[in-house]
Amino acid sequence: MDDADFIFQLGNLKRTRRSGWLTVGITDCESVAEHSFRAAALAYILARREGLGIGKAREAMALALMHDAHEARIGDLHRLAKKYAKLDGALAIREAMGALGPEFETRDKKIRDIAKDADLLEMYFQAKEYLDEGNPYAEEWLSPKKLKTAAAKKIYRIMVKRDSKRWILGAVEW
Protein backbone atom coordinates (compact mmCIF):
# COMPACT_ATOMS: atom_id res chain seq x y z
CA MET A 1 0.00 0.00 0.00
CA ASP A 2 1.41 3.39 -0.90
CA ASP A 3 1.03 6.60 1.12
CA ALA A 4 -2.01 7.80 -0.82
CA ASP A 5 -3.92 4.56 -0.22
CA PHE A 6 -2.91 4.61 3.43
CA ILE A 7 -4.40 8.10 3.84
CA PHE A 8 -7.57 7.11 1.95
CA GLN A 9 -7.84 4.10 4.26
CA LEU A 10 -7.54 6.33 7.33
CA GLY A 11 -10.31 8.50 5.86
CA ASN A 12 -12.64 5.56 6.35
CA LEU A 13 -12.20 6.02 10.11
CA LYS A 14 -14.05 9.34 9.84
CA ARG A 15 -17.09 7.40 8.58
CA THR A 16 -16.79 4.49 11.00
CA ARG A 17 -18.97 5.06 14.06
CA ARG A 18 -18.05 3.73 17.48
CA SER A 19 -20.58 0.92 17.52
CA GLY A 20 -20.95 0.51 21.27
CA TRP A 21 -22.70 3.87 21.48
CA LEU A 22 -25.12 2.83 18.74
CA THR A 23 -26.29 -0.10 20.89
CA VAL A 24 -27.60 2.30 23.54
CA GLY A 25 -29.40 4.62 21.14
CA ILE A 26 -26.77 7.27 20.49
CA THR A 27 -27.24 7.55 16.74
CA ASP A 28 -25.04 10.61 16.21
CA CYS A 29 -22.09 9.08 18.02
CA GLU A 30 -18.42 9.78 17.58
CA SER A 31 -16.35 8.25 14.80
CA VAL A 32 -13.26 6.13 15.31
CA ALA A 33 -11.18 9.04 13.98
CA GLU A 34 -12.66 11.41 16.56
CA HIS A 35 -11.97 8.90 19.32
CA SER A 36 -8.38 8.36 18.16
CA PHE A 37 -7.66 12.10 18.02
CA ARG A 38 -8.70 12.71 21.61
CA ALA A 39 -7.02 9.49 22.79
CA ALA A 40 -3.78 10.76 21.24
CA ALA A 41 -4.06 14.08 23.12
CA LEU A 42 -4.76 12.19 26.33
CA ALA A 43 -1.76 9.90 25.78
CA TYR A 44 0.53 12.91 25.52
CA ILE A 45 -0.92 14.45 28.68
CA LEU A 46 -0.74 11.16 30.59
CA ALA A 47 2.87 10.57 29.57
CA ARG A 48 3.90 14.02 30.73
CA ARG A 49 1.95 13.66 34.01
CA GLU A 50 3.69 10.32 34.53
CA GLY A 51 7.02 12.15 34.30
CA LEU A 52 8.07 11.05 30.83
CA GLY A 53 9.97 13.39 28.55
CA ILE A 54 8.60 15.02 25.44
CA GLY A 55 10.02 12.32 23.14
CA LYS A 56 8.33 9.49 25.06
CA ALA A 57 5.13 11.53 25.29
CA ARG A 58 5.14 11.92 21.52
CA GLU A 59 5.69 8.17 21.16
CA ALA A 60 2.66 7.49 23.37
CA MET A 61 0.64 10.05 21.41
CA ALA A 62 1.53 8.44 18.08
CA LEU A 63 0.69 4.98 19.38
CA ALA A 64 -2.72 6.18 20.63
CA LEU A 65 -3.39 8.05 17.41
CA MET A 66 -2.97 4.90 15.33
CA HIS A 67 -4.29 2.31 17.81
CA ASP A 68 -7.55 1.76 15.89
CA ALA A 69 -6.27 2.27 12.32
CA HIS A 70 -7.09 -1.36 11.52
CA GLU A 71 -10.76 -0.59 12.15
CA ALA A 72 -10.79 1.06 8.72
CA ARG A 73 -10.77 -2.54 7.47
CA ILE A 74 -12.77 -4.48 10.05
CA GLY A 75 -15.02 -1.81 11.53
CA ASP A 76 -15.53 -1.01 15.19
CA LEU A 77 -17.01 -3.99 16.97
CA HIS A 78 -18.72 -3.44 20.30
CA ARG A 79 -18.20 -5.91 23.14
CA LEU A 80 -21.24 -8.06 22.37
CA ALA A 81 -20.21 -8.42 18.71
CA LYS A 82 -16.65 -9.29 19.75
CA LYS A 83 -18.07 -12.14 21.82
CA TYR A 84 -19.17 -13.85 18.58
CA ALA A 85 -16.95 -12.44 15.83
CA LYS A 86 -13.98 -14.41 14.59
CA LEU A 87 -11.58 -11.91 13.06
CA ASP A 88 -7.84 -11.96 12.54
CA GLY A 89 -7.06 -8.70 14.30
CA ALA A 90 -3.32 -9.15 14.00
CA LEU A 91 -3.61 -9.57 10.23
CA ALA A 92 -5.87 -6.51 10.00
CA ILE A 93 -3.33 -4.44 11.94
CA ARG A 94 -0.39 -5.65 9.81
CA GLU A 95 -2.17 -5.01 6.53
CA ALA A 96 -3.72 -1.71 7.61
CA MET A 97 -0.41 -0.30 8.82
CA GLY A 98 1.75 -1.74 6.04
CA ALA A 99 5.37 -0.62 6.08
CA LEU A 100 4.62 1.95 8.79
CA GLY A 101 3.58 -0.75 11.25
CA PRO A 102 6.95 -1.20 12.95
CA GLU A 103 7.13 2.56 13.56
CA PHE A 104 4.07 2.28 15.82
CA GLU A 105 5.26 -0.66 17.87
CA THR A 106 7.05 -0.31 21.17
CA ARG A 107 8.62 -2.65 23.67
CA ASP A 108 8.20 0.01 26.35
CA LYS A 109 5.46 -1.31 28.68
CA LYS A 110 4.97 2.13 30.23
CA ILE A 111 4.23 3.64 26.80
CA ARG A 112 1.82 0.80 25.99
CA ASP A 113 0.06 1.23 29.35
CA ILE A 114 -0.26 4.97 28.78
CA ALA A 115 -1.68 4.49 25.28
CA LYS A 116 -4.18 1.93 26.59
CA ASP A 117 -5.17 4.21 29.47
CA ALA A 118 -5.63 7.05 26.99
CA ASP A 119 -7.91 4.83 24.88
CA LEU A 120 -10.01 3.91 27.92
CA LEU A 121 -9.99 7.39 29.42
CA GLU A 122 -11.19 8.89 26.15
CA MET A 123 -14.10 6.45 26.20
CA TYR A 124 -14.90 7.50 29.78
CA PHE A 125 -14.87 11.17 28.77
CA GLN A 126 -17.22 10.38 25.90
CA ALA A 127 -19.51 8.40 28.19
CA LYS A 128 -19.61 11.31 30.64
CA GLU A 129 -20.56 13.69 27.83
CA TYR A 130 -23.34 11.37 26.62
CA LEU A 131 -24.54 10.92 30.21
CA ASP A 132 -24.60 14.69 30.75
CA GLU A 133 -26.60 15.01 27.52
CA GLY A 134 -29.25 12.67 28.89
CA ASN A 135 -28.40 9.12 27.83
CA PRO A 136 -28.68 7.07 31.05
CA TYR A 137 -27.03 4.00 29.51
CA ALA A 138 -23.74 5.81 29.07
CA GLU A 139 -23.17 5.48 32.80
CA GLU A 140 -22.38 1.79 32.26
CA TRP A 141 -19.18 2.86 30.48
CA LEU A 142 -17.93 4.85 33.49
CA SER A 143 -15.95 2.06 35.16
CA PRO A 144 -12.25 2.90 35.70
CA LYS A 145 -11.26 -0.60 36.85
CA LYS A 146 -8.83 -1.17 33.99
CA LEU A 147 -6.85 2.09 34.31
CA LYS A 148 -3.22 1.42 35.22
CA THR A 149 -1.44 4.76 35.53
CA ALA A 150 -1.76 7.15 38.46
CA ALA A 151 -2.20 10.06 36.05
CA ALA A 152 -5.16 8.41 34.29
CA LYS A 153 -6.80 7.55 37.61
CA LYS A 154 -6.40 11.14 38.82
CA ILE A 155 -7.86 12.62 35.63
CA TYR A 156 -10.73 10.13 35.82
CA ARG A 157 -11.59 11.15 39.40
CA ILE A 158 -11.79 14.80 38.34
CA MET A 159 -13.67 14.09 35.11
CA VAL A 160 -16.40 11.92 36.61
CA LYS A 161 -17.41 14.67 39.07
CA ARG A 162 -17.42 17.47 36.54
CA ASP A 163 -20.17 18.68 34.22
CA SER A 164 -18.83 18.18 30.71
CA LYS A 165 -20.00 21.61 29.55
CA ARG A 166 -18.52 23.50 32.51
CA TRP A 167 -15.45 24.52 30.56
CA ILE A 168 -17.59 26.59 28.17
CA LEU A 169 -18.85 28.80 31.01
CA GLY A 170 -15.31 29.52 32.10
CA ALA A 171 -14.14 30.31 28.58
CA VAL A 172 -16.65 33.08 27.89
CA GLU A 173 -17.32 36.36 29.66
CA TRP A 174 -20.99 36.65 30.53
Description:
With 174 residues, the protein is mostly helical. It has one domain: Hypothetical protein af1432. 63% of the residues lie in helices and 0% in strands. It has helices at residues 3-15, 19-22, 32-49, 54-66, 71-74, 79-84, 89-97, 109-132, 150-161, 166-171. α3 (32-49) packs antiparallel against α4. The termini are far apart.
Give keywords.
Hypothetical protein af1432; single chain; mainly alpha; 174 residues
SSE topology string: HHHHHHHHHH
Percent of residues in helices comes to 55-70%
Classification by helices and strands: mainly alpha
Number of domains: 1
Identify the CATH homologous superfamily. Answer: Hypothetical protein af1432
In total, the number of strands is 0
Q: Report the total helices.
A: 10
Strand content: under 5%
